[in-house]
Specification:
By secondary structure, this protein is of the alpha+beta class. Among the domains are: about 70 residues, Winged helix-like DNA-binding domain superfamily/Winged helix DNA-binding domain (Arc Repressor Mutant, subunit A, Orthogonal Bundle); about 70 residues, SH3 type barrels (Roll); about 80 residues, SH3 type barrels. It contains 12 helices and 14 strands. The strands form 3 sheets. A 6-stranded antiparallel beta sheet has the order 3-8-4-5-6-7. It has a 6-stranded antiparallel beta sheet with strand order 9-14-10-11-12-13. Helix 5 crosses helix 6. The longest helix has 29 residues. The radius of gyration is 26 Å and the shape is globular. About 30% of the residues are buried.
C-alpha cells in the first residue's frame, strides 16, 4: 500500500518540476527559447556589422572572413548569409554580399551603440582601455535604440569614440575619413595620432604599453622594413611595422616637433589639476596596467590633493578616489594643466 504522504510529496515534486520547465517567460524551456532567439539575433547583427566593416575598409565580406570573425564554420556562415538575404538585409552581388539600405541602417545602429558604449567606458569608468572593445561587443546587442539615445545624451552627443573612430549619428550618417597610416608617414616629420585600431587586442595592448594615445605626437626619426624609430616626449623608441599599421596619423606642418616641454603629475602642487595626455613609454607591464585600471587614461582630470611631510608620495584625486603616487610614478603621467574647478564640475 502506497504511503499517502509519500505520494503527495512525489506529486508535489512533479508539479513543481513541470512548472519550472514550462512556466511562461520564467521556465527553463522559455529561457532556452529566449537564449536561442537572442543568440540568433546577436549573430545576425554581428554578421551585418562585419559586411559593413568589410565594405568600409574597401573590401568584400567572404564566407571565410565571416566564419573567422564569428568563430563559426563556413557552412554556418553560408546559412547565416542566406538568412540575411531572406530578411532583406543583404543582397548577393557578383563579388559577394552587399548591404541593402535596411542592412546598412541596422549595421550603423550597432556600430553607433558600440562606439557610444566605448566612449562611456573611457569617460565614466575605470575599465582598462584594452577591455573597452570587448565590453562594448556585448553591450551593443543589449541596448535598444532608445537606450542608446539616452546614453548619447548623457555623454553630450560625442562625435568620436576613444579610439578616434567617428560615431554614426542617430540618423545613420557616417563622415568620410581620410586616414594616413603611420607606416606611410614621411621620415623627418612630426605627426599627431588620430586613431588607434583596437583589434587585435594584443597589438592594441602593445601600442598602449608604448605610451601611444589619441592626440599624442611622434617625431619620425627613421624607418626600415622592421618598423619606425620615433621620438615622443623626449624619449626614443621603436614601433614595429605590424603595430605601426594600426596607427593612423596626420602630418603636422614643417617645424613642429614632438619633444617640447612636457608636464607630468609630479609637477602639480596641492590644489592644482591636470588632464591626462598619456603615459610615458617608461611605464610598462603591471605598473602601466595598474594606472589604466585606476582610470588614468587620456582626458581624465586629476587633481593634487595633499603631500607627505617630505613631498613624496603625493595624494591625487582620480575619478572620486584618493590615490597616493610616488614622484617616479607621477612622472609617468603626462598632463595639460586645467583649472581646479574642472575637477569639481566633472
Amino acid at each position: 500500500m502506497v504511503d499517502p504522504a509519500l505520494a503527495l510529496l512525489v506529486f508535489t515534486v512533479l508539479v513543481v518540476g513541470t512548472a519550472a520547465v514550462v512556466w511562461p517567460r520564467r521556465g527553463v524551456l522559455a529561457r532556452l527559447v529566449e537564449y536561442t532567439r537572442l543568440t540568433e539575433r546577436v549573430r545576425l547583427e554581428d554578421a551585418v556589422k562585419h559586411v559593413y566593416m568589410a565594405e568600409l575598409a574597401g573590401g568584400v565580406c567572404t564566407l571565410e572572413s565571416l566564419a573567422g570573425r564569428l568563430g563559426i564554420s563556413t557552412h554556418k556562415a553560408s546559412v547565416l548569409l542566406t538568412r540575411l538575404t531572406d530578411l532583406g538585409l543583404v543582397q548577393i552581388g557578383e563579388t559577394g554580399p552587399v548591404l541593402s539600405e535596411d542592412g546598412r541602417e541596422s549595421a550603423l545602429r550597432t556600430v553607433r551603440t558600440h562606439r557610444l558604449w566605448e566612449r562611456y567606458l573611457a569617460d565614466r569608468t575605470g575599465v582598462p582601455a584594452v577591455d573597452w572593445h570587448d565590453e562594448a561587443e556585448h553591450m551593443e546587442h543589449n541596448l535598444t535604440a532608445d537606450e542608446a539615445e539616452v546614453l548619447a545624451a548623457r555623454l553630450g552627443h560625442p562625435n568620436w569614440d576613444p579610439h578616434g573612430d567617428p560615431i554614426p549619428t542617430a540618423e545613420g550618417h557616417m563622415p568620410d575619413l581620410q586616414h594616413l597610416s603611420l607606416t606611410g608617414a614621411p621620415a623627418g616629420r612630426t605627426v599627431e595620432i588620430t586613431h588607434l585600431e583596437d583589434e587585435p587586442r594584443e597589438i592594441y595592448d602593445r601600442l598602449l604599453t608604448m605610451g601611444l594615445a589619441l592626440g599624442g605626437r611622434l617625431e619620425i626619426l627613421a624607418r626600415d622594413d622592421r618598423g619606425l624609430r620615433v621620438r615622443a616626449a623626449g624619449e626614443e623608441f621603436q614601433i614595429e611595422a605590424v603595430g605601426a599599421s594600426n596607427v593612423s596619423v596626420r602630418v603636422l606642418p614643417v617645424g613642429e616637433r614632438a619633444g617640447g616641454a612636457v608636464e607630468t603629475l609630479a609637477d602639480l602642487q596641492p590644489g592644482e589639476a591636470g588632464s591626462v595626455v598619456g603615459l610615458s613609454s617608461a611605464c610598462r607591464g603591471p605598473q602601466r596596467r595598474r594606472l589604466l585600471d585606476l582610470g588614468v587614461v587620456p582626458g581624465t582630470v586629476i587633481s593634487a590633493e595633499m603631500s607627505s611631510a617630505t613631498g613624496d608620495p603625493m595624494a591625487y584625486l582620480i575619478r572620486g578616489a584618493l590615490i597616493a603616487f610616488r614622484r617616479e610614478q607621477a612622472g609617468w603621467v603626462t598632463i595639460e594643466r586645467v583649472a581646479e574647478s574642472v575637477e569639481v564640475a566633472s
